[in-house]
Amino acid sequence: MKEEKNEKQEMTDRGVNNDLQNLKELAEDSIPKLKSNIHCLTIIGQIEGHVMLPPQTKSTKYEHVIPQLVAIEESPDIEGLLVILNTVGGDVEAGLAIAEMINSLSKPTVSLVIGGGHSIGVPLATSADYSYISPTATMTVHPIRMNGLIIGVPQTFEYFKKMQDRILSFVERTSNITKKRLMSLMQETDDLLNDMGTILIGRQAVDAGIIDDVGGLSDAISKLKKMVDERKQKQET
Fold it and tell me: Is residue 119 annotated as a catalytic residue, yes or no?
């Protein structure tokens, strides 16, 4: 009897601690619990690569994302992946690595751009099997840029060109836009002050061929569930 009371007390204490943690982190005393066959991956802030960002910078660390993607591919309980993006871009190598891994998943994937999907966020958005953008979300397409010391030799610019071509080729492969059209958007000088590139808002990203459709959370989940059902039917036949 005493042991049962202790177990109940431990469960109560654990529940209180969880509520306090949720209140601290999410400003909610509890969050809905739902067992789902869909995993949600959020890519927010700045993509952090091989160099750590300042602690006050909201970031997505690629070493956190990659193990998740491996687990999603291996888990029999997860049948689809929803990628939600609100990113300013960041490390090109890390962002492209994540995009390639998402694109290589065998399970259905859908991306949703909310707020913004800028710079390296563009290939991250197109890496999914189907992509959505909310009506007010923006995407900035611009050439590769680098901060810090740059050696002014022809090899440096050749390296930049190769990196740029990797991104162009990936986006062309995973979306409905041509490399030539994407390059022209990157070289525009009218949209951005003191810079090159193009800002696309909602429907404009779809019309350009980068994103598949304009929509929100319910659209993305409905599409993903439909793709999961279609995959199951193919496996059964």
Answer: yes
pLDDT band at 208 (very low <50, low <70, confident <90, very high): very high
**CA 135 – CA 219 distance, rounded (Å):** 12
Measured N-to-C along each axis, helices 154-174 and 179-186 cross at an angle, to the nearest 10 degrees, of: 120
Rounded Cα distance between 20 and 191, Å, is 46
118 catalytic? Reply is no
Residue of 39, 131, 134, 142 marked active site: 142
Q: Are 119 and 90 in contact, with CB atoms under 8 Å apart?
A: yes
Q: pLDDT tens digit string along 95-138?
A: 999 999 999 999 999 999 999 999 899 999 999 999 999 999 99
Choose the catalytic residue: 39, 111, 118, 119.
Answer: 119
Compute CA 41 distance to the chain's CA centroid, rounded to the nearest angstrom. Answer: 7
Pairing of strands 130-133, 213-214: parallel
Q: Positive or negative, the Cα torsion across 53, 54, 60, 61?
A: positive
Contacts of residue 229, Cβ cutoff 8 Å, sequence gap at least 6: none
Q: Would you state the pLDDT for residue 197?
A: 82
Domain boundaries, the chain: 1-33, 37-236
CATH of domain 37-236: 3.90.226.10
